[in-house]
Amino acid sequence: MTDVCAAAGQPRTYLMCPPEHFAVEYAINPWMNPQLPVDTELAVKQWEGLRETLTGIGHQVRLLPARVDLPDMVYAANGAFSVDRTVFGARFTYPQRAAEAIAHREFYEELGWRYVRPTETNEGEGDFTYLPGAYGGTILAGYGFRTDPDAHRRLQETLSRPVVSLRLVDPHFYHLDTALAALDDETVAYYPQAFSPASQRVLRQLFPGAVIADRSDALAFGLNLISDGRHVVVNSEATGMADKLATAGYQPLPVEFTELHKGGGSVKCCVAELRG
Ligand code: ARG
């Protein structure tokens, strides 16, 4: 570990948005079925469980107020991507979510961070992951379903960190954070088959020590996790992934998250890290 790395388990600050108005009213990914009922009360309860788990291990959670007309706003990871108080704003693929970006922008402007307005489609931390300890600070960026690869180039110019473009090929894993997770400042876990053969090779070359997930781990949203380098918060259905993480030396903290899976996301989708 180099000195740019945050120590494992150190307090972090996250942004979350309560699922008071969560619903599946449209289908923009293979997980969403507007015909299936959603228990919003249960979604709120499970989301509270996630928030309490994060604060219980010493992290700070800031809240973004939910909006009644934005049923996917609970997936706060998609609203922006920040490193060193510079915020790369999101521009959503689907019109149903477009207004979420404005709510996030207002939050960051109030915080006084530098907000860079997006010019290309990108879904924030859904498709961008930051590894401060990998090669002096590296951003992994997904494309293929949501984020425009031109946004990757602009992100590199904006944040002055190398951006590694990775092509996603399986519609079930339409965001990078459904297929790959940062476990600490330099280590990742991922499901290889979610990526093109060339991107798999890039990942093998950059991360020979990665934790490798299988299809059942990924389908259980086992990679959609939040790690502080020691504790790994992961949904309780992803038992195979929890075992692999424990074997790799991390401490899995399972949380029930069934309701929010109906929108096509799990714990990581509901959290954006504020990197100040
Ligand atoms: N229903 C949302 C969508 O399809 C889910 C977003 C999940 N977020 C994530 N970071 N993977 O846009």
Please specify the SSE layout and strand pairing.
Blueprint: E1 13-16, H1 40-56, E2 60-63, E3 80-83, E4 86-89, H2 100-111, E5 114-116, E6 128-131, E7 138-143, H3 149-159, E8 163-167, E9 180-182, E10 188-190, H4 197-206, E11 211-212, H5 215-219, E12 226-227, E13 231-235, H6 239-247, E14 251-255, H7 258-261, E15 272-273
Parallel strand pairs: 1-2, 4-5, 7-8, 10-11, 13-14
Antiparallel strand pairs: 1-15, 3-4, 6-7, 9-10, 12-13
Task: Characterize the structure shown.
The structure is a single chain. The protein is of the alpha/beta class. The protein is globular, with a radius of gyration of 17 Å. It is 25% helix and 20% strand. The chain is built from seven helices and 15 strands. The model has no long low-confidence stretch (mean pLDDT 97). Bound molecules: arginine. Arginine (ARG) binds at residues 28-29, 32, 72, 75, 77-78, 97, 126, 175, 177-178, 263-265, 269.
Low-pLDDT sequence parts = none
Main beta-sheet strand count, sense and barrel state: 3 strands, mixed
The overall average pLDDT, rounded, is: 97
Number of helices: 7
Order of helices and strands: EHEEEHEEEHEEEHEHEEHEHE
User: How much of the sequence is in beta strands?
Assistant: 15-25%
**Span between termini:** 20 Å
Quickly describe the structure.
Helix content is 25%, strand content 20%.
